Amino acid sequence: MGRLIIVSNRVPSPRERLQPAGGLTVGLKDALRGGESLWFGWSGNQSEFEGDPATGMDEVDGVTYATIDLTARQHEGFYQNFSNGILWPLFHYRVGLMNYSRRDWQTYLEVNAMFARCLRALLQPDDVIWVHDYHLFPLGQALRDLGVTGRIGFFLHIPVPPWSLVRSMPGAKLLLEDMQAYDLIGVQTEEDADNLNHAFRLNGLTERAGAFPIGIDPHEFREQAEESVRREEADRLRASLRGTALILGVDRLDYSKGLPERFRGYEAFMARYPEHRGKVSFLQVAPVSRGDVEEYRQLRCQLDELTGRINGAYAEFDWTPIRYLTRPVARDILAGFYRMADVALITPLRDGMNLVAKEYVAAQDAADPGVLVLSHFAGAAPEMDEAVLVNPYDADEIADALHQALTMGLEERQRRWSRLDEDVRRTTAGFWARDFLKALDEAPPVATPPLGPS
Ligand code: ADP
Ligand code: G6P
């Protein structure tokens, strides 16, 4: 087999290259280590140069990282506006938040074509290419246009809504047509695969989508949690809790995560279950993400206000109901917080998968596991039905679920957790990557290589 070429807009930072952590990086670690491999994407930097940029190369642990800069104009049109201001809300069922503009669509296509040209220069004939996420829907077709005939797979990390909704974006049909250039398209759930295949069918195209739910490296995460629970930060958190139960939320500050709805659920819990006042603390870690996009700025204001209101109404002079952080907390500290938390409150309005739910399960102490309260609308929910599943739009249901979780007996907690843990340990990130690549190898090829000289 030839080299594996991973393409994604965001590539691991130099620090992550040394110590892979989090979704994609962990997921691909095993696959990348199997043989010679290259990871291509955006450097994270902006430059003033308007032609095709030079490709920066760096090799760590046998993986070559090849990255290019974007201009400020491309960064705005391709990343900020089209990927995060149009595709992200649309694919998270939030068509009302979509700010479509033809100019951004053009920049999106232009950057995809540029990615294809820069990558093309690095390719060898038998390379297997695996493209990731919504920033790069048209990349496969752009590569085919440049004569690439090898295997190209695509994985979409975000949800896929029904075609009746997707088609509200001008150009949606063109995106579907471009996606026909991939030999295989992976999505997170059966529902996503059905929606995408149905969209292909309705447009007279070939069905190419299959469900490949992504996982984590549970062994690594458990070790991290066991180690980190003994760190000074965990001691400080424990001391500050003074015996109160800990409810933990961990998300990027993103409107898909249902944070205002979650805070209102906690408010309803305070109002309807006064016996828990003063006896629980809700810690929400939500580092700012995509802070230059208007909707994300508004969300931040909304949460500042809600936190103030709830704490103002229920705090005592020696107890605060919500602790809310918009600064990032390092993963090796956070893992210990997961292990200490009595309840994880994970209530996205829509989420491709939600790896935090799986990390929480992996971090638990088998002798005294916590309870996972999870939204029905996380991609993880169909696999995790032993969690306490909630409708994130129903504040009272969140309140009831919190009460149920905090009063659940040890036996039931262990029973639910061990089933969840079994699943998390079975469907790992490594399994996901291997499974997808095997299916890609077996998929009927879209393009046939030209006959070379014999
Ligand atoms: P998303 O991909 O939308 O960010 P996931 O739940 O799949 O959502 O999270 C991806 C990764 O980012 C996980 O490995 C998780 O641990 C990490 N992560 C998410 N939120 C935080 C946070 N507040 N602080 C540190 N890491 C986080
Ligand atoms: C989600 C997307 C990824 C993206 C990540 C962080 O997980 O599926 O493609 O990289 O969010 O977002 P950012 O905009 O900072 O890359």
From TrEMBL:
Listed EC numbers: 2.4.1.15
Keywords, alphabetical: Glycosyltransferase, Transferase
Pathway linked to the protein: Glycan biosynthesis; trehalose biosynthesis
GO MF, one example: alpha,alpha-trehalose-phosphate synthase (UDP-forming) activity
Reaction catalysed by this enzyme: D-glucose 6-phosphate + UDP-alpha-D-glucose = alpha,alpha-trehalose 6-phosphate + UDP + H(+)
Enzyme category, top tier: transferase
GO aspect biological process, one term: trehalose biosynthetic process
A Pfam entry, by short name: Glyco_transf_20
Keyword Lyase: no
Annotated Gene3D superfamilies: Glycogen Phosphorylase B
Subunit structure: Homotetramer.
PANTHER family per record: BCDNA.GH08860 (PTHR10788:SF106), TREHALOSE-6-PHOSPHATE SYNTHASE (PTHR10788)
Family statement drawn from the similarity comment of this UniProt entry: Belongs to the glycosyltransferase 20 family.
Stated name of the protein: Trehalose-6-phosphate synthase
Organism encoding this protein: Gluconacetobacter liquefaciens
